Amino acid sequence: MTQLKELLVEQLQNLLHAETQLTGSLPKMGDAARHPKLREAFEKHLAQTEVHVERLRQALELLGEKAQPKVCKSMLGLVEEGVETISEGRGKQPLAADLALIAAAQRVEHYEISAYGTAKCLARQIGEIMCARLLSQTLGEEQSTDFLMSAISDPILQQAALDDMGADVDLEGVGDFGRAGRSRAQSVSKNREEQLTAAWARRDTHHE
Amino acid sequence: MNKETLQELLTEQIRDLYNAEQQLVRALPKIAKAAESAELADAVTSHLEETKKHVERLTQVFGILGIPAKGKKCKAMEGLLAEGDEVISEEDAGELRDVALIAACQRVEHYEISAYGSAKAIASRLDLEDAVELLQQTENEESQADHTLTEVAGSIYDATDEDDSEPEEENDEGSEDNDEPAELVKAKRAPTKSASSPSRSKKSKSERR
């Protein structure tokens, strides 16, 4: 019992370190993202991650423990891979670079989904219900982020397939492509991306 | 972006996974040995056999792509396994260490579930049906391994509960998962009460795509 609590505390300290590392690396991922939707997703997830750090502090406080991080080697490795993905992405076409970033980000999300899943079970097991609730909230947000990343990659992959067929699909109306326009996109791929943005815009409307 | 670019991206993902799985083949025996619970040792050992198959399947995928099977150092897996080593060296054998080992293994499974998911999505766009099939088989086995570990953890908890009974939590299922991406934009600066919808069971945590 006491031991399970100790294990929970360790798991939370480990997560605290992981989330703190992420607050440092998400802005870099965001800067590297070429597509505005992806950049936006990273920015939003950064704001969420700051909340996650705060929740972990609260959870540790509920357990009567200090918010002392414990080095999370896994996240160090994941972040290092992210850094690699960013630097390799500079030589890639924009959509390909974005897909690689998404793949890296989803690995991170899955790490967290697993870690919060474990921590939440432990908290429940020892009857720390408030603590379990905080962890559940974050778990839900990590899962949502994972889904969102998949949702962003889908149309990019579709577009890649269309490009290859030489298809000229009219996706009606062209959204503002704004900042991503300064990327090294070739005019053709820029056009594709504009179509993509329009498709996203319609998708968003649909969701509302 | 053309097919070639996508194929390069797929190759990178497969190389990462190939190295990750090879690292795992080396690490799993140590984890099985460290497990006190026979159930956990069995689960890890049978996953080792699966993992060897996963390496073989990746070799087949390399074949489909027409390139030699070559890994690219997967730093994330190195980190994940280093954490597993830490558990083994820092804790004494017993139920508690088993629970910690399960936690470490489940992180590994999730890494793989995510990586196979990404690779599969790209292969699917490239119409590489055979590769998709191979990747899907492995992804399913990784998910299954994750579920099995959750069950093993459950029985270890049950065993500890015999000495120590605790009130059951009834009502915090609500925030367990919210599949709707739109939810995620609502993060607030301060922690809030859960605003998510009623959920499915916890097993759904690895379902995606």
Tell me the strand percentage band of chain B: under 5%
Radius of gyration of chain A: 20 Å
Structural class of chain B: mainly alpha
Low-confidence stretches of chain A: 168-193, 203-208
Q: Describe the global form of chain A.
A: elongated
**Could you give the order of the helices and strands of chain A?**
HHHHHH
CATH fold-level name of the largest domain in chain B: Ferritin
Q: Spell out the CATH superfamily of the largest domain in chain B.
A: Ferritin, core subunit, four-helix bundle
Q: Helix/strand-derived class of chain A?
A: mainly alpha
Biggest sheet of chain B, open or closed, and with what strands and sense?
none
The overall number of domains of chain B is 2
Instruction: Note the run of SSEs of chain B as H and E.
Output: HHHHH
User: What is the terminal separation of chain A in angstroms?
Assistant: 47 Å
Overall description:
The complex is a heterodimer of chains A (208) and B (209). Chain A is mainly α. Chain A has one domain: Ferritin, CATH 1.20.1260.10. Helices cover 79% and strands 0% of the residues of chain A. Chain A is built from six helices and no strands. In chain A, helix 1 packs antiparallel against helix 4 and helix 2 packs antiparallel against helix 5. The C terminus of chain A is likely disordered. Chain B folds into two domains: 159 residues, Ferritin (Up-down Bundle); 25 residues, no CATH class. Helices cover 67% and strands 0% of the residues of chain B. Chain B has five helices and no strands. Chain B is elongated. The C terminus of chain B is likely disordered. At the A-B interface, helix 1, helix 2, helix 3, helix 4 and helix 5 of A face helix 1, helix 3, helix 4 and helix 5 of B.
